[in-house]
Give the backbone structure.
Amino acid sequence: MSRYLLDKFLYTIDRDPELVERYRDDPAGTVDWWERERANVLLNCHVGENSTWLKFDDAERAALVAHDYVKLYEMGAHPFLTLTLFIAMYERDFAEPLGFQLEYAQKLSAWREKPYPDITT
Amino acid sequence: MATIAAVIASTHHPFYYKASTSTGADRPPFADEWVRKVEAFRDTLTRANPDVLVLVGSDHFHQLWLDNMPQFLVGNAPHYDANWYNEEREFGLPRFFMNGQQELSWHILRGGIDRGFDLAFSNELRLDHSVTCPIITLRPQNDLPVVPIYTNIFAPPLPQPKRFVELGRMIRELVESWPSDLRVAIIGTGHLSLELGGPRQFGPHGPDPEFDAKAVEWIATSDIERAIAEVSLDSLWMPGNATHGFMDFMLMMGVAGEGVKADYVDTYDLFHTMEAYFTWYLEATA
């Protein structure tokens, strides 16, 4: 399991307007492309310096492909990164202000009385 | 030597800009009172007549990232661009350009390292809303040079709360030992109880009003001893998963000094989080 790589995915998608739309429209294709082409890119470095060891496990890949932010929360993806990216993708679909944010909280309600998942990387 | 014109601690609510500039049906019902409170808070800085702003905040995974994460970082640049695409997208924040006060940056870096605080630095730093929100609320004309200081309240392992207090004390000593005639305001922003990306987010109040009431009392009286006794890295999860930002308030208590009561205190109970505003004038108490 690699919480770091989950966070790296969320971070690198969220900061790029084109990738936010691509991940919204084609999650499976974007996750597949990102894991092949971007997961091992050392940020700010030439691709000749890529890392060699980073990959998702099956559950992580499935959660990202499903846009399953509850599962990402349970896995310990950084909640700020997850929230920010999913607001960018889904807030537009809700008529009421904070409609998506409140649904997000509701979907996590089973965690309300439980300790937070470990987010250390 | 430089004079500390004011010490200011504040929450940083990124929705203030949008709320305060919206009109007609888009204007939320809480906006007018919020603007009134912020403008009163702004007066406390204006009255202090500052020449330079030291701005303490925390990068929200914008430029500082997990492959290379500093605990405490001082901006050391002649200029700073500010606000990021995802802050424009989510909060409608405008982009800024700010001038740096690089002599003071260097003085804090050199002096801090020599006193045992191994501060990281950045010669090219794009600032985010943790330090631009107080520009919007307190100095919207954005006319003063700044020294930004970032703390890690986001990515474990975090520094201990007492370390934030110690950094605050040291920042004060270093500003007071800066050979300059300028008046420096030290402004830091943090959080009270706050939940982001968790089940308690975006409620009608902050997630833990009881913590907020205690925290406001600690800050208003700069009761460092009590705050240190009651707050730990583990306990800060209880009021909400983003409450570690309270440690930036503890840093500002370190700047103000143990037991020094704030000259100005105000709060505003909003959806999502409580707003809290504090100003100390150290000249009057020195």
Notes: The mean pLDDT of chain A is 97. Helices of chain A lie at 3-14, 17-25, 27-37, 58-65, 69-75, 79-90, 99-107.
